[in-house]
Design goal:
globular, 5 helices, 185 residues, seven-stranded mixed sheet, 7 strands, Glutaredoxin
Length: 185
Amino acid sequence: MSFSQLIPSFLLILVCTKALAGVPTIDAPLPPLAITERGELTLTDDEFSFIPWSSEAGLGKVHVIQYFGATIEHKDTFKPFTDLLQSSFEPGAINVTTVLNMDAAMWGTAGFVMSELKKNKRMLPLAIMVVDDNGSGVIEWDLGKAGTGLIVLDDKGIVKYFSRQALSEAEMASTVELMRVNIKR
């Protein structure tokens, strides 16, 4: 096969790959994401380890998934909202998962990022923290150039809210209210 014959095949593969990405859509199931390399950080008997993680793991409760790059630029994108969640809901009322895209980390910073993640896990042992080494969430959920996303799911895994950027005060308030409505169901 010649090079000129390969070009259309390559373009078709690119288009099909993009078409398979599943943008989180309101009132539809969240397109599944499974992270098997590293995955969820666990802490047992003062020892850290990783287990595979799936976006379907939080079924049964209202679930917030925040996905962002392991960079200084993105680390606080959703912090005002997650801070509001801590003051708005009793511990255990909702699931909150943080997925870090390590593929976005600057070269040489992975060790620092992992150290911070472990420090946070010690402070918040019940927090669900996931490491996505390959940035698969950016592709699977079509998170765009910034590679950030905040997704709110009901207890059945249906998307109730989705944003690729930081939330305004009004968006935070309405999203918390939306979560309360879904908890009462």
